[in-house]
Design a protein that fits this description.
alpha+beta; 60s Ribosomal Protein L30, Chain: A; 2 domains; 5-stranded mixed sheet; 5 strands; elongated
């Protein structure tokens, strides 16, 4: 009896030990597969990173080889020119330095782009000031726009002048006063006042034709800006364009009315633009 009990105890212990070992082996197997999957994933990422680095290095080496070949080609060209006595030694050295400073051109282009952006900001600021000053005036009467970096202020002749006349009307004077305030706040700006007519032939003494009418209308606006609103006359140019730059068809009354206009053109200032190039970075 005692022998049987002892045998049962031994068998039970063996069975429990076997079950515990099996569970541990299963857990270990699961952990192994998790670690192996993580390892494989990291290995793939490492391989991808190494491949990318290798491609970048190959690209760098290719560019270096191209640059080296270009320098050799430039040197050979200079030597050939010198041997042909086309240029002097000093001239060859000067050209060589120019070729070696190609990267400087890239820096200049970047500075030029920055200056263009600053110029565009100044232009938009001027446009916003003009539109703010003009307030709720209809775009059919006064239109402010930017075309290819140039600011234009178009004022319809139905507001500025009576038919066939070059005397500025009172309602137009109120508009020109608002424009003058903005322009007086920008004393470095120069501008041109252009008179435009429609294509209907005009002749009324002392005016001979549309050329005369367009010029007289432009000079009337310029005189008003100078005499009443105190804009420096050195900043202004008066020009007559007659009927030869229409913005609408002259076949309809509406089109002809659109073409009869006085335009103020804000002239681009190249010296101011180059001053922008000289402006230190960060300012």
């Amino acid at each position: 009896m005692k022998f049987i009990q002892a045998a049962l105890i031994i068998a039970t212990s063996t069975l429990l030990f076997s079950c515990g070992t099996a569970k541990k082996l299963k857990l270990a197997d699961i952990r192994y597969h998790v670690l192996d999957s993580t390892y494989q994933d990291l290995q793939r990422k490492l391989n991808d990173a190494q491949l990318l680095a290798s491609q970048k290095q190959a690209r760098i080496e290719s560019l270096e080889e191209q640059l080296k070949a270009k320098k050799i080609q430039n040197d050979e060209t200079l030597n050939q020119l010198q041997s042909l006595s086309v240029i002097s030694t000093s001239q060859a050295e000067s050209i060589k330095k120019s070729l070696e400073n190609i990267n400087g051109k890239d820096a200049y282009i970047k500075d030029l782009q920055g200056a263009m952006q600053r110029k565009d900001s100044l232009t938009m600021n001027l446009v916003m000031n003009l539109k703010g000053a003009l307030g709720n005036i209809s775009d059919e009467d006064v239109n402010v726009k930017v075309d290819k970096g140039v600011v234009y202020i178009d004022i319809s002749d139905k507001m500025l002048f009576k038919s066939g006349s070059f005397d500025v009307t009172n309602p137009a004077k109120a508009v020109l006063e608002k424009v003058a305030k903005v322009l007086n706040n920008q004393p470095d700006i120069e501008f041109m006042v252009e008179g435009h007519t429609d294509a209907v032939e005009f002749s009324q003494p002392p005016l001979a034709d549309n050329w005369d009418l367009s010029v007289k209308r432009a000079t009337s606006v310029v005189r008003l800006l100078e005499d009443q609103y105190h804009i420096d006359p050195k900043r202004m140019t008066a020009a007559g364009r007659s009927s030869f730059i229409p913005v609408a068809s002259n076949d309809t009354e509406k089109g002809r009315a659109t073409n009869r206009r006085t335009r103020i053109v804000i002239l681009p200032q190249l010296d101011q633009f180059f001053k922008l190039l000289e402006t230190p970075k960060g300012q």
